[in-house]
Amino acid sequence: MNNYRYIKTINGPEDVKKLSLDQLKDLADEIREALFNRLTKIGGHFGPNFGMVEAEIALHYVFSSPKDKFVFDVSHQSYPHKILTGRRNGYIDDAHFQEDSGYTNPDESEHDFFNVGHTSTSISLATGLAKARDLKGDHENIIAIIGDGSLSGGEALEGLNVAGSEIQSNLIIVVNDNEQSIAEVHGGLYKSLKDLRESHGTSANNLFKAFGLDYIYEERGNDIAALITLFKKVKDIDHPIVVHIHTCKGKGYKIAEDNKEAWHWCLPFDRATGKPTISFGEGEDYTSMTTDYILDKAQRDPDFLVITPAMPGSVGLSPDQRARLGKQYVDVGIAEEQAVAMASGAAKRGAKPLVVTNTTFIQRAYDQISHDVCINNNPVTILLNYTSFDGLTDVTHLGIFGLAAYANVPNLVVLAPTCKEEYLAMLEWSLDQQDHPVMILIPGDEVHHRQTNLNFSQINTFQVEEAGEKVAIIALGDFYARGEALSQAIKKTYGFTPTLINPRFASGIDEDLLTSLKQNHQLVITLEDGILSGGFGEKVASFYGPTDMKVKNYGLAKSFYDRYDPEALLKKVGMTTPQILADIKKYLQ
Amino acid sequence: MNNYRYIKTINGPEDVKKLSLDQLKDLADEIREALFNRLTKIGGHFGPNFGMVEAEIALHYVFSSPKDKFVFDVSHQSYPHKILTGRRNGYIDDAHFQEDSGYTNPDESEHDFFNVGHTSTSISLATGLAKARDLKGDHENIIAIIGDGSLSGGEALEGLNVAGSEIQSNLIIVVNDNEQSIAEVHGGLYKSLKDLRESHGTSANNLFKAFGLDYIYEERGNDIAALITLFKKVKDIDHPIVVHIHTCKGKGYKIAEDNKEAWHWCLPFDRATGKPTISFGEGEDYTSMTTDYILDKAQRDPDFLVITPAMPGSVGLSPDQRARLGKQYVDVGIAEEQAVAMASGAAKRGAKPLVVTNTTFIQRAYDQISHDVCINNNPVTILLNYTSFDGLTDVTHLGIFGLAAYANVPNLVVLAPTCKEEYLAMLEWSLDQQDHPVMILIPGDEVHHRQTNLNFSQINTFQVEEAGEKVAIIALGDFYARGEALSQAIKKTYGFTPTLINPRFASGIDEDLLTSLKQNHQLVITLEDGILSGGFGEKVASFYGPTDMKVKNYGLAKSFYDRYDPEALLKKVGMTTPQILADIKKYLQ
Q1: Could B131 and A165 be called an inter-chain contact, meaning their C-beta atoms sit closer than 8 Å?
Q2: ipTM score of the complex?
Q3: Does A118 touch chain B (CB under 8 A)?
Q4: Boundaries of domain holding A221
Q5: Which of A437, A458, B36, B410 has most Cβ atoms within 10 angstroms of its Cβ?
Q6: Which residues contact B485 (CB under 8 A, 6 or more apart)?
Q7: Could you report the per-residue pLDDT of B514-527, keeping only the tens digit for each?
Q8: Phi and psi (nearest 5°) for B203?
Q9: β-strands B381-385, B413-415: how paired?
């Protein structure tokens, strides 16, 4: 298909500068071919990269990385930059795909400055680089590259505000405006961007100038020549400036240009049809059952309100389904703080708000969860996806810190369901009760079915699923199935029946039940899907601390794991069934 | 001085509506007298309340609370509102001062909707009230009241953005512009506010319109008649609007008008001179030693950089001292996310950033601490004030959640100094090393002096300050002095010498040391100044869980305590020395 004539000559940005304009255009075509090569085979971020091919070529043509420093927001659009900075093999050579993280990563290259994966941070990070450069009396260009979807995030707006007055030196903020977040954009600022696009940058209604910033516009955001002219104009500028470029998300693949939301990120796919080439089991999954629940609940209950910070996909809501929800659905854009505080306000006024997003993103609303929701004890339900160690394994997207972060916030009831029946009952209970803020962790494993206690009104009551002796296994949430397997292994190997407990509540302990276990148990085992530090098991260990009961907590270490094999990780931390069986023998001696 | 002729007739907002304009002006005078009565005697927020007397009278005159709903940002400016809503006795009757929390509080009055104390949340909360109102088909006015200082917070900007497009119904955002945060305002948006003030609202450079919002300006923000006219104009409006009023912070007390920063908040004071009527000990304090350290470090090290989200007072930096720091000082405005991410960028570029603020406020940067600083392992130092249970006791300002929140974040080294020598050495070590992000908790107790190990290069090495037997006391940070007292009491009461350990590191455990304690100890006691849940002691309990060592964790319950007596609280949770002595007897049996 392509012999990557130019790409193969690019060992670093200095090689980009050697090419003529026509050659740069051929290079752009080759980069798209390289992107296709990787993305058709292993998937990844599609639209953001296809839209930014020309801009990243022009940036490397005009500026001198790594002396000049690019800070990519989210960095899911940095693939062309990676191809141009010595990492082409991650795209053109299938054997090397795994060497590339999919985000900027200082461990990969001196051209990357931060490991990032959350939105709206680039301007803030860039102001820091600029400030330190100024302290040292140096003069390189600092360039933040941020998409319009990320602009709704408070941190990006804080960054614009600070850049607009506290930095009096070079700082270039490239706003890549493709009129799209993951889903459609939401927020009043997009009217200002539209005015600017339609007036070719001349509208007096200018968000960036309102933050005190200089400003320049370029309509031709996918035209290398125009972009080179533009970037040369602002290179070595002596004050902060916003460079607003208009690009086309997914540029160069009509199927993606026509359906920008679906092609923000892709599974491996067939280039001719756009159809995924891998499929998941036909069986039930938690996402589609959540979608169904939400649509049904909205019909049944006019007070029910879904609020999402730009992550309708976290619960599978398609554009059509969002339209069906109508006024019972609010997308606040990428703005987790707003989403959670808005939910608190809505709950106070009698609505039944459900905030939906991924676990890793909600941490931006830690303060709002604590201060605006939990101090006020407003009945907000926060529903989180990708809660498990075997969900997203990129270091910037881990779900393993949720228990440590939220289960220690007073008043917040954190629920960890173990099966479909329990999950749906928890959702219904949480939305209909008025006494507690609740967080529900969507299980990360396959869908199980069980008959169990579906009454949650007594907070922190654990459920004994099987009563036994000697050893009690407290297996939280989607590790309950592992607890069941361990119980069976104990019966088979050691010939006694351990007690098997489904704690259901991750944010407290059932002191009565734990006390009763002292009668005929010597060892309590906890299993949890997250880091041990600050998590569930430590609470159990602390409770039994002054007693004769032995406790062993199983979970992950406090560490930023990155792109790991999940089962190998469990073995590394010693929590496979054979390892635990060996431990039990030792502890019971 | 004043017989509060009108105030005494005001049992609720309906009584405000009965007064003539002249009477309302007299009422304003009386409210200022009432504020003087409370503030001269017990202190509190001064400038924000004196500046908003007329506006809050006019709001209650025009709108009908609680049907119409006021959401006060931070709510430190809500005293006049409280006086007008049945809570005058908290201001005019000294015996009732303690009945008033100093912030809005739904437990106090149906006219208050949220317990708040952090900034920049009012617009988000109000959008939630508005959304729920719309779902229910109701039509009351929702009014957010936010100061210009709070506008730099990302959540407020997210709120403006969402209000500017996702709410198509009544929402009134009163921006109280007094040209001041606690310190001076920082950020480019203040140029837009200045343009608007100078043009009487007609400037095309309009931040609010750039967020898609309707807008109206009133210069006479301390003129009741003008404000009544203004609020009548927007009452029952069918879409969101920003009502920008220009007020004078501290209005009515020249000393405060002339020194707005010092009079944001006041101690009890003499009205004639403005001088505080209480004084603190003459001895050393951690704040002034921090100020001295910062000024000295800046002189010694050109890479040293202080970054604060509008809280220079957290380390005692006066305007003059900030000027002396020059380019080594950045106030980003109320914008914790920006402060922390900027620090990460600055550290990456070789600066030595020190982020300073209060513990309760840094939780807004939880994501940035984890994602932007700790994943990248950039050597940022975060220095926190009011870390202790006996610092600020308002439920919205507690410092007791810091260990649970941050000490479980991977890579972050959390240091808990026990004395001056250790504190200053930790600061110096942290700023000069390049291997770890560090958080230092400024002790909340009196200044102690000790000779101890000042080498922190081996992370998580605890220091045995006195070796003993049977019982080991691990006393963290500013509870070390309580550990010393406990040790003495054990010697005296039980006749043996316990081991006394200063852990120094709050974010990990010294496994070698803990293992060695097994030789001649039966009980390990942990003492920490914060909630137990997710905290330090639980990590020790988990470590010893499978062993014969007994562990008892002492600390606070996971609870939103409010305006408590600190020593009574310690007794309530069973951690006074006599209580612990009794426990020891029991556990050693």
Answers
A1: no
A2: 0.97
A3: yes
A4: 7-266
A5: A437
A6: B577
A7: 999 999 999 999 99
A8: -55, 140
A9: unpaired
